[in-house]
Design goal:
The chain is an alpha/beta fold and 493 residues long. Among the domains are: 68-313, Aspartate Aminotransferase, domain 2, CATH 3.40.640; 428-492, no CATH class. 42% of the residues lie in helices and 12% in strands. It has 15 helices and 13 strands. It has helices at residues 27-38, 58-70, 83-99, 114-132, 150-158, 175-181, 204-214, 229-234, 274-277, 303-340, 367-376, 402-418, 428-434, 440-454, 473-492, and strands spanning 107-111, 140-144, 161-165, 186-192, 217-221, 251-255, 267-271, 282-284, 292-294, 345-347, 355-360, 382-384, 389-393. The protein has a seven-stranded mixed sheet with strand order 1-7-6-5-4-2-3, sandwiched between helices. Helix 3 packs parallel to helix 10 (303-340), helix 11 crosses helix 12 (402-418) and helix 11 (367-376) packs antiparallel against helix 13 (428-434). It is globular and about 65 Å long. It binds pyridoxal-5'-phosphate (PLP). The site of pyridoxal-5'-phosphate (PLP) has 14 residues, from helix 4.
């Protein structure tokens, strides 16, 4: 019999465990290992990342942890057993509804995150249409091309066709195009406030009047903006109308775990009234385990994320959120002005809040090569496509690094200008490839394979930033050829 593999300190890959240790390890040792592994993570504490972590202040975080800990073992699954958590959820929804001007009619539930809020909204509109408009067999929802990918996920999960409407040159959805895409099978429209890729707020009043005219629901995805825009507006920034004050807006998703500064695992889905929310509920009376009722996707609902959200909203207060909004708006402005001042770069659209992206305005400057240079300098860069761009979401800590970032960015632009071959190394080829429509099937296949390797027993780490970024050699060669030909033509011109 082969000797059972030892998976203690002698394990070849530190931190990788292939089986539960036969004897429990000392807890301090486990914590030490975790801290060691954490050192390899993105350097968000140094304000080097512009996504993934929304950090208000260390003081607020410590408070959230305390509030989370108190209900660490609580379970929101059963509101009778945990009346405390039911109270917290009720209050969080009331506070959110009042912030979004929903009035007493507005209702909703907490969820585990923006994606769950969106999954639920799509399923709610689908099931409402099934009940009220049974002739619709193949429902569709019309969304801006810039909408969060969670809508495509929801469409796939719940068999609702997601139709993407084109954008105006400023990055907002084109409402005329949305109206032309409406079919007898359309059940809802969607707008974002703001959208993720370019930070623009869609023309919600226009979308709402189209929705009202055609008898459709209108969901506003305010996952990022929900807990930010109301405060920016309150302190005097001009924010176009987007919340329940706009007649025709029937639901809003707003994430607590982004600019709400709650612990992760907390978002909200709100509806104008119970005529929508009731289709979100799930009841099953035939289960041998008992009659089962559930307001949202999960069974077990972690108490900590509910309690921390309740506590966080109160600790921040209107003044805290407004102060935060002021810092974020001013910092975003410094970034946007600094970027616009660099020749060859431009900010996409005219984004009104702390979420925006920039691209190159000079065809000789490859955005992904700039991104690679910035990565090299220790920044965690979020690359986008259509157009190739770099994405930022601002938090108060970023006020401290604006100049460092801009300085590196200026160097990056100079470097890429003087090294046209930079597009062929690092991750630039992979991202360039993804922007290439005829090859998208191949890209998708490639990514699926990477995922299979990540989730097989070996558990390979993804390495998109490595040389060539996992792009098949033959494609790399074609890209090099194209680049060289491109240079020839340019020289000829
Ligand atoms: C973050 C985000 C989502 C998804 O939220 P998760 O909490 O990441 O699931 C949806 N829409 C927008 C606009 C977002 O920014």
């Amino acid at each position: 019999m082969p000797k059972k593999q030892e998976n203690t300190a002698a394990s070849p890959k530190p931190g990788r465990m292939d089986a539960i240790p036969s004897q429990g390890l000392p807890r301090t040792m486990i914590l030490e290992r975790m801290t060691a592994l954490q050192k390899e993570d993105v350097r968000w504490r140094e304000n080097r990342a512009f996504s993934l972590v929304f950090h208000q202040s260390d003081e607020h975080t410590e408070f959230l942890k305390a509030a989370h800990n108190l209900f660490f073992e609580g379970n929101g699954l059963n509101p009778m057993a945990f009346a405390s958590l039911r109270t917290f959820e009720h209050d969080v929804i009331r506070m959110t509804a009042s912030m979004l001007h929903g009035g007493q009619e507005a209702v909703g539930t907490m969820t585990s995150g923006g994606t769950e809020s969106i999954l639920l909204a799509v399923r709610t509109y689908r099931d409402r249409a099934r009940a009220l408009f049974p002739k619709i067999k193949k429902p569709n929802i019309i969304v801006p091309a810039s909408v969060h990918v969670a809508f495509d996920k929801a469409g796939k999960y719940f068999d609702v066709k997601i139709i993407h409407a084109p954008l105006l040159p400023d990055g907002r959805v084109n409402p005329g195009a949305v109206e032309r895409l409406i079919t007898p099978n359309t059940i809802a429209l969607v707008g974002s406030a703001p959208n993720y890729p370019n930070g623009m707020i869609d023309p919600i009043p226009e979308l709402a009047s189209i929705a009202l005219h055609h008898g459709l629901g209108l969901h506003v995805d305010a996952c990022i903006g929900g807990f930010f825009l109301p405060w920016a507006e309150k302190i005097g920034y001009s924010i176009p109308p987007w919340d329940f004050r706009v007649p025709g807006v029937t639901s809003i998703s707003a994430d607590l775990h982004k600019y709400g500064y709650a612990a992760k695992g907390a978002s909200t889905i709100l509806y104008r009234n119970m005529d929508y929310l009731k289709y979100q509920f799930f009841v099953f009376v035939d289960w041998p385990g008992g009659v089962f009722a559930s307001p949202s996707l999960p069974g077990t609902r972690p108490g900590g994320s509910i309690s921390a959200a309740w506590a966080g909203l109160q600790a921040m207060g209107e003044d805290g959120y407004q102060h935060n909004a002021e810092t974020v708006m001013k910092t975003a402005q410094r970034f946007k002005e600094g970027i616009a001042a660099i020749e060859g770069l431009r900010v996409l659209g005219n984004p009104p809040a702390g979420v925006f992206a920039y691209t190159t305005s000079d065809h000789r400057l490859n955005c992904y090569a700039i991104a690679d240079y910035m990565t090299e300098k220790g920044w965690h860069i979020d690359r986008q496509q259509r157009p190739p761009s770099i994405h930022l979401m601002i938090n108060p800590g970023h006020a401290r690094i604006v100049e460092d970032y801009l300085q590196d960015l200026r160097k990056a632009v100079d470097h890429v200008r003087s090294h046209p071959d930079a597009v062929l190394s690092g991750s630039a080829p992979a991202y360039g490839l993804m922007a290439n429509a005829p090859l998208r099937g191949l890209v998708s296949q490639n990514i699926l394979e990477i995922m299979e390797h990540m989730y097989d027993a070996e558990g390979a780490m993804p390495e998109l930033d490595s040389e060539g970024g996992g792009v098949p050699k033959i494609i790399l060669r074609l890209m090099k050829l194209r680049l060289r030909l491109g240079n020839v033509f340019k020289r000829g011109a």
